[in-house]
Amino acid sequence: MFATPLVWGITIAGILALFLLDFLITRRPHEVSMREAVGWSIFYVAIPLLFGVWVWNSGGSTTGLEFYTGYLVEKSLSVDNLFVFMLLLSSFAVPRPLQQRVLLIGVAGALVLRAIFIALGAVMIAKFSITFLVFGIILAITAVKVWRDAVGESNHTDVQNMAVVKLINRFVPVTSGYHGTKMLAIEKGRRAATPLLVATLAILAVDILFAVDSVPAVYGITGDPYLVFATNAFALLGLRALYFVLEGVLNKLVHLGHGLAIILGFIAVKLVLHWAHTVWPAVPTVPTLLSLAVIVGVLGVVTITSILATRTQRGHARSEA
């Protein structure tokens, strides 16, 4: 663990500054153009890539590899999470100019939740080596769920059945329409929640599930809480802009779920082996370089197969027409 308290402080200050920049960008609701979304997405990818160079020089090649591998895992998971965000924003019919405000609040909530999970995970790992086994089991279960979702064996999230939505509708009246960026508004003489508040709380509720998946996943790459926090933060910060870039592209990555299930399963095995190694030193562990190679390879394969599958579907559609 190479990060000093000063490095921690500078990193957190930098993350907060980038979040403030995002807040200023979304202060005035507007529809995000593809050019704007691509520009900010490139910016938010360039920052962690450059940051990784500093990590590599400061902590050594192993630490640098752990950062890049962890960031790649977290970014892949965040892309998959965008499917759920799209479903939520569509279900609540959030106007396009307001979507990035909801996404930004969701990112803020995710940062806070993951910071809590990271701190708890670090304490548990420091005191109990069996935590690696617990994390491995969590990821294995998640991998099975992601695979079932990918092959259509389980239903997508039903927004109306979400506990947070039911709770709000039961105890707080909801306005019939949106009132700009207001979370609460006066309608029929009484204060009521707007659909924007309901959509935002639904996003925050989903953030909890995402934290349960993502934090154990990156702990499978590195045990350094600083790298775990940095990879999560950088993956989340660019999520708002990336949403608008991938809004139409994600539907073409038809095999992304399969790839993420394989990656999560692989990391689950790695965590279990790491736990077994602490109990029986003869049990081999998975090197970081091999982890990076597997993750990049799986993502590359599913991207190619998704493109081929999409082209085949288009060909069949044209022939039938």
From TrEMBL:
UniProt keyword annotations, A-Z: Membrane, Transmembrane, Transmembrane helix
Keyword Aminoacyl-tRNA synthetase (UniProt): no
Chief localization: membrane
Bilayer disposition of the protein: Multi-pass membrane protein
Chaperone among keywords: no
One Pfam family this sequence matches: TerC
Transmembrane segments: 6-25, 37-56, 76-95, 102-122, 128-147, 192-211, 226-246, 253-276, 288-309
Stored NCBIfam families: R_switched_Alx (TIGR03718)
Similarity annotation: Belongs to the TerC family.
PANTHER family per record: MEMBRANE BOUND PREDICTED REDOX MODULATOR, THYLAKOID MEMBRANE PROTEIN TERC, CHLOROPLASTIC
Name this polypeptide is given: TerC/Alx family metal homeostasis membrane protein
Protein source organism: Luteococcus sanguinis
Lineage: Bacteria, Bacillati, Actinomycetota, Actinomycetes, Propionibacteriales
